[in-house]
From TrEMBL:
Gene3D superfamilies in the record: Hotdog Thioesterase (3.10.129.10)
Organism, scientific name: Roseisolibacter agri
Protein name: Acyl-CoA thioesterase
Pfam assignment, any one: 4HBT_2
InterPro entries assigned to the protein according to its UniProt record, in alphabetical order: 4-hydroxybenzoyl-CoA_TE, HotDog_dom_sf
Gene Ontology MF annotations: fatty acyl-CoA hydrolase activity
Length: 137
């Protein structure tokens, strides 16, 4: 089941046009992914590579995001995040940003990550990672 966090939009989240812009939305989505990780590991422990299958780490390879409605100051949003696919060396997380009261979809994104070893080379997704992330439903 996908993980969900609330997010309240403040004026400081908005650009000169009065809405959440692309860069801020990417940051909000990243916060939601960290919150998802926090369900399985302490953020204090994240930098300890020994907790991540033999020093394997992941980095963003590709972001695909679509916007459906603007997010404005005062909006209460719900950000859902979940695993949609695991490949050999990569995995994809889907995220949806909706208004908490109306359910209107504001944005949706799929982020592709690649797993790297300590030398920065792609490596297979560790087997134990397959059960770490909540799945998208």
């Amino acid at each position: 089941m996908a993980h969900e966090i609330p997010y309240h939009v403040y004026p400081t989240d908005c650009d000169v046009f009065g809405h959440v812009n692309h860069a801020t939305m990417i940051t909000i989505l990243e916060h939601a992914r960290w919150a998802l990780l926090e369900t399985v590991i302490s953020l204090r422990d994240v930098t300890r590579r020994d907790l991540w299958a033999d020093g394997v780490w992941s980095v963003v390879r590709h972001v695909d995001i679509g916007y459906h409605w603007q997010s404005l100051p005062g909006d209460d949003l719900a950000i859902r995040s979940g695993l949609v696919e695991i490949g050999r060396t990569s995995y994809r997380i889907r995220q949806a940003v909706s208004h908490r009261d109306t359910g209107r979809l504001h944005a949706e994104a799929t982020i592709t990550f690649v797993c790297l070893d300590t030398d920065g080379r792609p490596v297979p997704v560790p087997e134990r990672w397959r059960s770490v992330f909540p799945t998208w439903d």
